[in-house]
Design a protein that fits this description.
Length: 546
């Protein structure tokens, strides 16, 4: 994925204030998943008894290796790997911005002599690489989880090479709580732990008291579970090479733009990578791969695992301009340059919305405006219109709410502006193109300003299927007097252009094709101190209905 993922859940109701904590983001495992099935003769088995952490480290050390990737143009990266079968190591796929690595070295723990190795299969889709060693003597394989286990328990150890000193001996850190976080629309089921993992190299091991590897650390800070690694070991254990397309894709909620609800939007294309050489560009919609329609990321991964590096695959794409949508075909060589040119198959006129724009303004002084916005009391806050403002009070720390104007339907091109009084330890923001999937997951663009410790900080994010992706990381508004009150906020979505302004200053202006329609709304959030009351003095909305 090309987005940076943040751990925020969005409310599923129209008027909702939710509390978010670390523990609510983890589905906690309180047991060890029942009896442990016996290992196969060639598969290492976990200990039958619980071990001390020193004993766990002693078991993991002979299986743990440092993997060095040397890439084009002098690029390099390191990762922790673990031997899981005779002569085979599993590790994390290195960054591929510069292309496929030229060489690879595997260094056993406690040694400074690299072993001859080659990548047998690498699947960036799944995030892992299988490395084969010419001489595996001296390495002892570690068990990858437990077949049939669901809960991973609450007593785990993180063990691997240090990110700052990878050539040193592996280091470890205990984690009191661990749990699984599953996203059914991704091929990777992930595990999270509540310790700082920034000091560990990617690929570091998550292990239990029985010396079993529960997962490998991903660059995102989460873990790829061992059960998933076991499943992937069979197709990737064969000589498949680099199953790399060189694109970042994501699902979309923008049928108005692409003329279809299906397909995956191309967000990034690696320069000089396979997709770039096949004429694929950011903003296109990938609708079919190897003759198969694709709607999800796991579908792409499954198709790629059936091929080998150098195989030529057909791609079907959609390219959108102001007036039309073109369907294109091209061919891509897996893991290699293809030097292909997209061919236009057909072109369709793009449907344009001719509905007149709607413009409304609220000053919160007229009696009829009482029915235009959500009001009332919930367990965590209240909303009321009084004294010429829409006052939203949050009574719980780290809670937030979405408040749409009840008299407006969904729209496509949208602009919402507000004048707001923002207290300390609170945030206020604007939402455009907010919608809800059948399963209750939210989709929306959100830009907000928070006032914390006497500073004003702006941030923007995209929620897609209930998961949040950063569009603008927290950015201090240094040119704005932090005592400014009230603040003027403005968020505009025109076709794929998203623009956020604070006090007339543009803090975000970029293209994003992911969302095409939905409602506008106000956003409030509390931090450490409660109660806090955010007051909106005036709100303006302009929208083109769907």
């Amino acid at each position: 994925m090309a987005r940076r993922l943040t751990r925020r859940r969005f409310p599923a109701t129209r008027f909702a204030v939710l509390t978010v904590s670390l523990l609510s983001l983890l589905v906690l495992g309180g047991c060890r998943g029942g009896p442990r099935p016996a290992a196969t003769p060639t598969e290492p088995a976990p200990s039958e008894r619980e071990l001390s952490w020193t004993e766990v480290e002693e078991r993991l050390q002979p299986a743990t290796v440092l993997v060095r990737f040397q890439g084009p143009a002098g690029s390099s990266s390191v990762a922790t790997g673990v031997a899981y079968a005779p002569g085979l190591v599993v590790t994390i796929v290195p960054p591929l911005e510069q292309g496929i690595p030229d060489t690879i070295e595997v260094v056993p723990s406690g040694s400074d002599q690299p072993l001859a190795a080659r990548v047998r299969s690498a699947s960036p889709c799944d995030g892992i690489a299988i490395v084969a060693l010419d001489d595996p003597s001296g390495l002892r394989a570690a068990p990858l989880g437990h077949p049939g286990s669901v809960d991973i328990g609450v007593d785990v150890l993180v063990y691997g090479h240090s990110a700052s000193d990878p050539d040193g001996t592996p280091v470890s850190a205990p984690a009191a709580i661990a749990g699984t976080v599953g996203d059914p629309k991704r091929a990777i089921q992930q595990i999270g732990v509540n310790v700082d993992l920034s000091g560990f190299a990617p690929g570091s091991l998550l292990a239990d008291r029985h010396g079993a590897v529960l997962g490998l650390l991903l660059p995102t800070g989460l873990f790829l579970p061992a059960e998933r690694l076991r499943e992937l070991a069979v197709p990737l254990g064969e000589e498949r090479g680099w199953l790399w397309l060189g694109i970042g894709v994501n699902e979309h909620r923008n049928p108005d733009r692409f003329g279809t609800e299906h397909g995956l939007v191309v967000l990034q294309v690696t320069p000089n990578g396979p997709a770039a050489s096949a004429g694929v560009r950011p903003g296109m919609l990938l609708t079919a791969l190897d003759g198969q329609t694709v709607d999800t990321f796991p579908q792409i991964c499954e198709i790629l695992r059936q091929h080998r590096q150098g195989d030529e695959l057909a791609l079907e794409l959609r390219a959108v301009d102001l007036d039309s949508i073109a369907t294109l075909e091209t061919r891509i060589r897996l893991g290699e340059a293809s030097d292909s040119t997209p061919t236009e198959v057909r072109r369709e006129p793009r449907t344009r919305n001719s509905t007149p724009a709607i413009s409304m303004t609220w000053t919160f002084e007229a009696p009829h405006e009482l029915a235009d916005w959500p009001t009332g009391t919930s367990a965590l806050g209240t909303g009321e219109i009084r004294d010429g403002s829409y006052a939203i009070t949050l009574t719980q720390p780290n809670s937030f709410g979405v408040f749409p104007p009840l008299v407006l339907a969904a729209g496509t091109d949208q602009r919402i502006a507000a004048t707001v009084s923002l207290p300390e330890q609170a945030g206020a923001g604007l939402v455009v193109r907010s919608s809800q999937d059948a399963d209750g997951a939210r989709n929306l663009y959100l830009c907000a300003v928070v006032r914390v410790d006497g500073r004003l900080v702006a941030t923007c994010s995209l929620a897609l299927g209930g998961q949040s992706f950063v569009l603008l990381p927290p950015t201090p508004l240094t040119e704005l007097d932090p005592a400014t009150d009230p603040l003027t906020l403005e968020l505009e979505a025109r076709d794929t252009r998203l623009t956020f302004r604070v006090a007339g200053r543009t803090v975000l202006d970029e293209e994003d094709p992911m969302l095409g329609h939905g409602q506008v709304a106000l956003w409030v959030e509390s931090f450490g101190t409660v109660p806090v009351t955010v007051r909106f003095h005036e709100v303006q909305v302009e929208l083109t209905p769907r």
